[in-house]
From TrEMBL:
This is Asparagine--tRNA ligase related protein. InterPro entries: Aa-tRNA-synt_II (IPR004364), aa-tRNA-synth_II (IPR006195), aa-tRNA-synth_II/BPL/LPL (IPR045864). The keyword Ligase applies. NCBIfam families: PRK06462.1-4. One of its GO terms (molecular function) is asparagine-tRNA ligase activity. SUPFAM superfamilies: Class II aaRS and biotin synthetases. Keywords: Aminoacyl-tRNA synthetase, ATP-binding, Ligase, Nucleotide-binding, Protein biosynthesis. Residues 41-321 form the Aminoacyl-transfer RNA synthetases class-II family profile domain. Pfam families: tRNA-synt_2. It comes from Thermoplasma acidophilum (strain ATCC 25905 / DSM 1728 / JCM 9062 / NBRC 15155 / AMRC-C165). GO terms for biological process: asparaginyl-tRNA aminoacylation.
Length: 329
């Protein structure tokens, strides 16, 4: 989809002129008619069924998503943050279900959800081709798991998915001229600081463009991530977490890691991040009751569709893409 020409630099409610409405309607109708969208959505539909089957076979329970909550992911990058006042309480739209996932591991060993996330990204994100303001994460968490276990599960899930998609969606991949390569396990691992030393600031993009198979960036420095990823007790400042990066320049696929679960460490991390206990009072109350060690990850479904189909832009993986900073239906 072409980036919408109707652009409002602020996000205030505006009165639309009839010309603007017509342009938007034309663009959406054009988008919905594109064969690319049809084939991409067929692939996406298979992604949902194959991955959920894979997880259920391994003892995961699917839980429904949370759409509004008094608690959501603070994220480590700026986004607009609207809230809803409801009977005197302030609710946010879910940016990720990280805290809800972690709370659930007290009662369930393995859970997953297809979680719609609203992240009103700044308009410059439109340049990446892989950011939407509304997308879905396949978000999972495992009680008592280590980072290695969750990485191994992620590798198995990707390999299983690619193999099955090649069979179930042969025609769609043929339409895109996509020869999907099945990666071999274990995926390559590169420590964040090593990648940074070798390639500089832009390492993710450079490595993603050079690689032929998905690979991991591990041991991400504390200041680069939110407070809930676990700091390695033997290596202060380094987190026990990871990103999976797609090859061929498609960039980040998923983020995950082990979680902080001890109250004193959670409070210390909130302070080190310059955030307030007030902001996370609900989570802290649960932490006082005791949280479980856990690990998990979240993988963006539209990005996964984009990679499997080899789409240039993520918009073609959604019938009604919310384009950062632009008028969308
Ligand atoms: P995060 O934990 O913030 O890295 O988000 C988890 C995953 O969700 C990412 O690795 C992406 O696959 C996906 N994701 C994050 N932000 C966006 C976005 N704005 N548009 C589409 N997918 C996203
Ligand atoms: Mg990430």
């Amino acid at each position: 989809m072409k980036v919408n020409k109707i652009h409002k630099s602020n996000l205030h409610l505006c009165f639309m002129e009839s010309g603007e409405i017509n342009t938007l309607i034309e663009e959406i109708s054009e988008h919905l008619e594109k064969p690319e969208l049809y084939h991409a959505l067929k692939v996406q539909s298979s992604i949902r069924s194959i991955t959920s089957e894979f997880l259920k076979e391994r003892g995961f329970i699917e839980v429904p998503p949370v759409i509004i909550s008094v608690l959501t992911d603070p994220l480590n990058h700026p986004v607009f943050d609207p809230t809803i006042d409801y009977y005197g309480y302030k609710y946010s739209l879910t940016k990720s279900m990280i805290f809800h996932k972690h709370l659930l591991t007290k009662h369930f060993d393995r859970i997953f959800t297809f979680s719609p996330n609203i992240r009103l990204e700044e308009e410059d994100k439109v340049k990446t081709g892989r950011h939407l303001a509304e997308f879905t994460q396949l978000d999972l968490e495992m009680k008592g798991a280590s980072r290695d276990e969750v990485m191994s599960l992620g590798e198995d899930m990707i390999i299983d998915l690619f193999k099955k998609i090649k069979r179930s969606n042969e025609e769609d991949l043929k339409f895109f001229g996509r020869d999907l390569r099945i990666p071999s396990k274990p995926f390559k691992r590169i420590a964040y600081l090593d990648a940074y030393k070798q390639y500089g600031e832009d390492f993710e993009h450079i490595l993603s463009s050079e690689m032929k198979e998905p690979f991991w960036i591990i041991d991400i420095p504390l200041e680069k991530r939110e407070f809930y990823d676990r700091e390695d007790p033997s290596r202060p400042g380094i987190l026990v977490d990871m990103d999976l990066i797609y090859p061929e320049g498609f960039g980040e696929a998923l983020s995950g890691g082990e979680r902080e679960y001890e109250l004193s460490r959670i409070i210390d991390r909130i302070h080190r991040k310059g955030q307030t206990e007030e902001q996370f009072k609900w989570y802290i109350e649960f932490a006082k009751e005791g949280l479980m060690p856990s690990a998990g990850f979240g993988i963006g479904i539209e990005r996964l569709t984009r990679f499997i189909c080899g789409l240039e832009r993520i918009e073609d993986a959604h019938p009604f893409p919310k384009i950062p900073g632009h008028l969308s239906l």
